[in-house]
Design a protein that fits this description.
Distance between the termini of chain A: 25 Å
CATH class of the largest domain in chain A: Alpha Beta
Low-confidence stretches of chain A: none
Number of strands of chain A: 14
Shape of chain A: globular
Largest interface: A-B, 53 and 53 residues
Number of helices of chain A: 13
Order of helices and strands of chain A: EHHEHEHEHEEEHEHEEHHHHEHEEEH
Number of domains of chain A: 2
Largest sheet of chain A: 7 strands, mixed
Structural class of chain A: alpha/beta
CATH superfamily of the largest domain in chain A: Type I PLP-dependent aspartate aminotransferase-like (Major domain)
Radius of gyration of chain A: 20 Å
Helix content of chain A: 40-55%
Strand order of the largest sheet of chain A: 2-10-9-8-5-3-4
CATH architecture of the largest domain in chain A: 3-Layer(aba) Sandwich
Oligomer: homodimer
């Protein structure tokens, strides 16, 4: 099966191999050395000198951690949303008692920095801006450099970033652009199985943390930091997934992060041009189309579920459907992690054949 | 290395093998069928007809879920503690605003049901009793049948059980004895890598959930239930660890849970008698000694760290040290999951040789 959903992504053989390694003691020197190395390597890809923590959870756990560690109930947050994951970020903040000011953009478009500036001017007491780097549900990548600039120039708010499906595939400069908490997940660009959320924490986020009153226990940054100094986590970590991440980071750093970004750009462009050559329409504005996931409008004469089924059953190619209100309206091709042009050619061939079959 | 800490535990070859399986779609029919089967098999080992959920987290995440899903800030809970994990359960409830009435027992002893009865009589407004089935830090198993009886006869409180290091190795009858939320972790008796918390939820817990106001998002039972009906989880699950759990459950059910319990009893007794034959003292009262972990007092002429180091470096046997206030005072032999008498013989031989070496 050619698995081309926007995560989990297929694992390279080198990663599958280390997944079969025997358990080790998570409180012993071998594990500790590995965790410290993994964190150092993650810092390179996060482009940060901040702390980076490994939470045993899916990415959403990291999103919850970013909120509960830096905010208090009643704090105002500006939640920028243009898709399922933007909505989820806002919903999570609301669940913990934040006063959520929502700034919605049309699905398929990027967030407009000018409107963010206006909203921040109108809400000078905003404690944090919540933003999704790469909106998996619509195939849109936000202009994070521009967003960071308007936030920094117009407020003192923290920037919390759901970078789950973008980081490690698309350039995101945590320190240079100035993001306070950045969250990603192992099953995305990292070529690993799901089960780890990786989260960076800036000095400014630590200051906010010192007075943040939202309740937390499993996600507590203070406990994470205390144990991280020993190369440990407070609670038993997903050791096997960390074996995988260790190996994956070597692969990423060997290829070079600039080359990894360039490969994703190339594969993204290849996907979009291939889709258009099939006579299909892209869902996302091309100016902000993601290089990790491409959303394709389902033609009006085609049922999305049928297209997915025939691609899967007859062609062994698995892509994703639409989420939320886009269900039935789009399909999504994942192209992140261990992915090359040839993988996408298979997807496009399967898509073309399936469309022909459905129209016969 | 003979890894004999009380989790993570060594994985049988059959499990290591499936860990190398390629990723699949967590929203597809293959995954959905697997998750449904895993839940059915878990119900057999939990001895329950209740919902059983799979959280991507370590066991402590499941503990947090048990609290935040059933309680509101200000609710009174009775936290029974006689070790690090009892204290942790209480601390987690406190972090989310519960009014915690602590009932401490001496470390190394089991909870006394009569004192629980008295405490409940004195606190008739207790909403939940928090109890650790098997206290990993002291090597003690509580008499859960007796505890359930006194709680049910003297109050209407929920019983939330941290069964992380006991369930699947020692008989715990979720429905027959009446426990409302039972939590365990994949790296314990389940012969799997860490990364999954498995949590059962009774009808009574669902009723409490309906009005429980502690904030929750990642751990929310309602979302879990909605997705479980499709064989899914709300957020991307640790697919590989579920491959492992699926296989492990087949092994457990093939052996038969009564036989698995009997094997742990046998190995537990073998460990305790072997330790005593070395002239060492058990830390836990023998009346309540755990069949998954044995705590051994470190003789006054021996440094615990040195003993652990020599066993590890010279004999390739890894056991655990003491936790919290028992650090340096005890060492702990884990014997849960895929464990047989011969594994323990190796531990005992290494321990004897290391003691001799240190005393030379």
């Amino acid at each position: 099966m050619n698995l081309r959903i926007p995560g989990p992504t297929p694992l390279p053989l080198e990663i599958l191999k280390v997944m079969g390694n025997q358990m080790i003691n998570h409180r012993g020197p071998k594990y500790e050395a590995m965790q410290k190395e993994v964190v150092k390597k993650l810092q390179k890809v996060f482009q940060t000198e901040n702390d980076v923590f490994l939470f045993t959870s899916s990415g959403t756990g990291g999103v919850e951690a970013s909120i509960t560690n830096t905010l208090s109930p009643g704090d105002k947050v500006l939640a920028i949303a243009a898709g399922v994951f933007g909505d989820r970020f806002a919903a999570c903040a609301k669940a913990f008692g934040a006063e959520v000011v929502k700034l919605d953009f049309p699905w398929g478009q990027a967030a407009d920095p000018d409107l963010i500036r206006k909203k921040l001017k109108a809400n000078p007491d905003t404690k944090a801006v919540l933003v999704v780097f790469n909106e998996t549900s619509t195939g849109v990548t936000n202009d994070m450099k521009a967003i960071a600039e308007v936030v920094h120039e117009s407020s003192d708010a923290l920037i919390l970033v759901d970078a789950i499906s973008g980081l490690g595939a698309i350039d995101l400069r945590t320190d240079e652009w100035g993001f306070d908490v950045v969250v990603t997940g192992s099953q995305k660009a990292w070529m690993c199985p799901p089960g780890l959320a990786m989260v960076s924490v800036s000095e400014k986020a630590w200051k906010a943390h010192a007075t943040a009153k939202m309740p937390r226990f499993y996600w507590d940054f203070t406990a994470m930091k205390e144990f991280a100094e020993k190369g440990q986590t407070p609670f038993t970590p997903a050791i096997t997934t960390i074996f995988a991440l260790d190996k994956a980071l070597d692969m990423i750093l060997d290829e070079g992060i600039e080359n990894v970004f360039a490969r994703h750009r190339r594969v993204g462009e290849h996907t979009r041009s291939g889709v258009k050559e099939l006579g299909l329409e892209l869902f996302a504005d091309e100016s902000c189309a993601s290089n990790t996931v491409t959303a394709v409008k389902v033609p009006s004469d085609i049922q999305a579920d049928e297209l997915l089924r025939i691609m899967r059953e007859d062609h062994e190619v698995l892509i994703a459907g639409g989420m939320g209100r886009l269900k039935g309206k789009i399909v999504r091709i994942g192209h992140l992690g261990y992915v090359f042009e040839e993988d996408i050619d298979e997807v496009l061939e399967a898509m073309e054949a399936s469309l022909n079959e459905l129209r016969r």
